[in-house]
Amino acid sequence: MSTHARPLAEWLSAASDAELATLFSARRVRPDAGWHDYFDAAEALLDTASVNRILPALTHAEATALLTAATSDDTRVSGPSADTLRALALLRQDGSPFPPVAAAVAERAVPEAVDAVEPRAADEAATAHAAERAFTTVSALADILLLARDRPFALLAGGNISAGEKRMLAEAGMAPESMDALIAIVTDASLVVQVDRQLRTTADAETWLRSSVGERWSTLVGGFRDSLPRGVRTEHGGWSPAASWPLAHPWDPAWSERSSALLERARLLGLLTDDGSETAWAATLRNGGDVDAGPLTALLPAEVDRIFLQNDLSAISPGPLAPALDVRLRTVATRESAAQASTYRFTPESIAHALVLGETEQSILEFLESLSLTGIPQPLRYLVTQTAQRHGLVRVSLDPDTGRTRIDSSDPHLIEAMSVDQGLRALALTREDASLVTRVGRDTVYWALTDARYPATLVDEEGTAIMGERHPAPSTPVPTAADYGPLLQALRSHEGADADAAWLDRELDAAVRARAVLRVSVGMPDGSTRDLVLEATGLGGGRLRGRDRAADVERTLPVSSIRAATIIEQ
Q1: What is the three-class DSSP state of 99?
Q2: Beta pairing class for 394-398 and 456-459
Q3: Together in a domain, 332 and 382
Q4: Under a CB-based contact definition with an 8 Å cutoff, are residues 198 and 152 in contact?
Q5: Average per-residue pLDDT in the chain?
C-alpha cells in the first residue's frame, strides 16, 4: 500500500465538491468507481496507470515543470503550472511531485519550446487567397450539410465517415484530402452530431444554412476557437502562435497528427495562409478579440439575389447566390456546377422532392417568379404544373380500424404497379379491394414509395396532406458533465473524524493481506512506547496478530494500543 496516498487523501477530504468533480473528470474517473473512502481514491489516483493516462493532457509548460521537479534538485513547482498540477493531484501541496508521479515522468523528455514570437502578417496576395479559400470552405460545408440533411452519413466505429460516404462526397466535388477536416469543422461548430452511428445535421444547421457568408464563417471560426485544446489556448480567450502548436502537448503520442489537423482546419478557414503567415482577422482572434467577418467578406464577391431561368430547364446565377435563396432553390433544382456563377437544373425528380418537403405548385412558381430576371419559361412552368398534378396520386394513411398502413390511389394502374414492384417486396403489400395494406409503419412506407419515385403523399385520418420529416434534426447537443454526486456522497459518508486511526487500520489490513513484516510502536500502560517487529498474520476484533521475530512467539496486540506501524519487509 502506498505511503504517499495519505497526504493526498487528506487533501481530497478537504477539497470542495466542485474541485473533486473537476479533478475526477480530468483524470477520467468513472462515476461508479468502487471507492470506499478517500484513501481508496488517493491510491487509485496515484496508481501508475492512472498517472500515465493524464500525462498526455499536460501542456508544454506543465510537462516541463513536472519533469524538472522530478529529475533535478529543485523539487518544487511554482507558478500557474503548479496550481494546475495540484488540481490534477500530481503535486503535493508544497509543490513537490508525489513519488509515483516522479517515477512515471523520470524517463520522459520534453523538447525545447519554440519562442512565442508574433506570427508574420500575410501580404495582400496571400490574404486575398486565404479569403477565397475560406469562401470555398464555407460553400463546401453547406454542400455537406445539405447532403447530410437528406441522408445522414454512416459512421465507422471510430467515428469517421465511411469510405462509401467519402466516395459520395468526392463525386459531389469535395477534395478527398480535406473531407476529414471539413467534417471536424462542422462538428466543432455543433452543426452535426453523432446519433446511432450516423452523422446528422442539428437544428442549428438549418439556421446556419440560411445565414450570410459572413455569419456562416463566424459560426465556424467560433466553434474552432472554442474547441481548441488547453495547450494552444491562452488565458485571454485566444490562442498561441501556430508555430508553437506542434509542441503544445509533448507527452501525447497522438498530438503530432492532431496538431497538423488543427493547422489544416485553420488554413481552410482562412486564418493561416499556405506559407504559414497570419491574416489580419486571425490576429484579432488570436489576441482574444471577437469574431469579425467584415475584413474577410470585404474581399469576397458580392452576393446576388436574382438568376436567369433558361428554356432548357436550367438556371444560371450570375454570382454567388444569397445562401437563403440558394438553399431553397436547391430544394426544387439540382445544382450542376458550383462557382461564382453556378448553374442549376430542374427535373421531375427535383420538383417532386420540393413537393415532398412541403412546397406547392403555387409556392414554387411564386418563388421562381421573384427570383428570375427573365420570368418563368413555358417549359419550366409546364414541368412544375405537371409534376404537382401527379404528386399526391398515391395517398399513404393509417387505417383507424386495423392500425395498418393503407395505400390508396385514384389511378388503378399505380396500385397494380406497386403491388408487383420487386423493389417494394420488403413492405409485404397485400391487396384489399382497390387499396394496398401492410403492417409496416406509415412513415416507412411513405419514404419507400418516395424513393421508388411514386407520387406519394402522407395524409391524416381526415385525408389532409401532412409533411413528413425523414430525418428530424436533433437538438444541438449540450455537453453534460459526468454526475459524480453519488460517488462524492459515498466518500463523504465514510469520512471519519480520526484520520490517523483510519489510516492505521488500512496499513494493518494491507500488511496482513501481504503477509508483510511490520515495525509497530505499542503504547504501554505506564505511558512508554515499545517497538516490536511482527510478521502480520491476522486482524480482527480490534486486534492484530503476528509472530514476534525477536522472541519467536505469537503476539496479539489491541489496535487501539498501536501508535504507528511501518512495513519493513514484504
Answers
A1: helix
A2: parallel
A3: yes
A4: yes
A5: 85
What is the end-to-end Cα distance of the chain in Å, rounded? 11
Torsion of CA 299, 304, 308, 314, to 10 degrees: 70
Long-range contacts of 281-288 (CB under 8 A, 24+ apart): 283/119, 283/121, 285/221, 285/225, 285/238, 285/239, 286/119, 286/238, 286/239, 286/240, 286/241, 287/236, 287/238, 288/234, 288/236, 288/237, 288/238
Strand order in the sheet with 314-316: 308-309, 314-316, 343-345, 334-337
Confirm whether 480 is domain-assigned: no
Domain end call among 422, 444, 466: 466
Domain that holds residue 369: 308-387
Q: Where are the alpha helices (DSSP H) in 72-114?
A: 80-87, 99-105
Please check whether residue 317 lies inside any domain of the structure.
yes
Residue 231 lies in a domain: yes
With bands split at pLDDT 50, 70 and 90, how would you rate the model's confidence at 1?
very low
Per-residue pLDDT tens digits for 529-565? 887 887 777 777 778 788 887 777 888 878 777 777 7
- Per-residue pLDDT tens over the stretch 165-192: 888 888 777 777 888 899 999 999 999 9
For the record, the C-alpha cell of 256 comes out as 503530432
> Would the pTM of this model clear 0.85, i.e. be above it?
no
Percent helix, strand and coil across the chain, each rounded to 5?
Answer: 45, 15, 35
Q: Rounded to whole angstroms, what are the CA distances from 186 to 93, 179, 193?
A: 42, 11, 9
Q: Is 132 helix (H, G, I), strand (E, B) or coil?
A: helix
